[in-house]
Amino acid sequence: MRSLGIDPEKLSGLIFVVFVHIALLYATWSYQSVAVPKEDATLFVNLINLPVKKETPPEPPKPVPPKKVALDKPKPLAPPKPVPMLVAETPVTSATDDVAPLPVLAPVAHASVVVAQAQPAPPMLMTSELSLACSKRTPPDYPSASRRMAEQGRVVLRVELDETGNITKVAVKEGSRYKRLDEAALAAVKGWQCSAAMRGSVAVRAVALQPFDFNLN
Length: 217
What we know:
The structure is a single chain. Among the domains are: about 1-30; about 125-215, TolA/TonB C-terminal domain (2-Layer Sandwich), CATH 3.30.2420. The chain contains three helices and eight strands, in the order H-E-E-H-E-E-H-E-E-E-E. It has helices at about 10-35, 145-150, 180-190, and strands at about 125, 135, 155-160, 165-175, 195, 195-200, 200-205, 205-215. The strands form three sheets. A four-stranded mixed beta sheet has the order 1-8-3-4, covered by helices on one side. A hairpin with a 2-residue loop joins strand 6 (about 195-200) and strand 7. The protein is rod-shaped. The relative contact order is 0.13.
């Protein structure tokens, strides 16, 4: 710089002055570019509380009406079918045997009909005295007390026999008015052995009368 005839100190001062002028120019330009508000405005802010929406509870579900169920009318019960009764067992037959056709059974009118069982035939009434049909017969003993008290009378007994001739029942049909005489007649007949009554060639039950006379004469 000295060769050019310029003092370095003066040059640095010149540069400083130029830099200062440039800075001032820049500051002036920036100041003009910023708009200065004419008046200060006061802003008021009101805080508005927004209404809080209340949450409404959900509505309960509406009850579902019950469905109508159609009831079927009860059907009348059919009467039970009658069960055929086994009358007799059918014998076993082979394939070569002739088999007779089965009888046609009449239908039962109602299930409540009761099949009547075969009732036994009533006993046959013997026309003669029982003693005539008994091979072993012992006369009744005359009670000693009845002898002392002179008790007399006639006793008629009703005697029932089974198909073998055994005596099954003895009863007083006509009494003598004295208990000792009636009991003596009953005790005697219960020990008799008789033959069965016959209806043709078949032995049957029978009823016979047997009288006893208690007489002291």
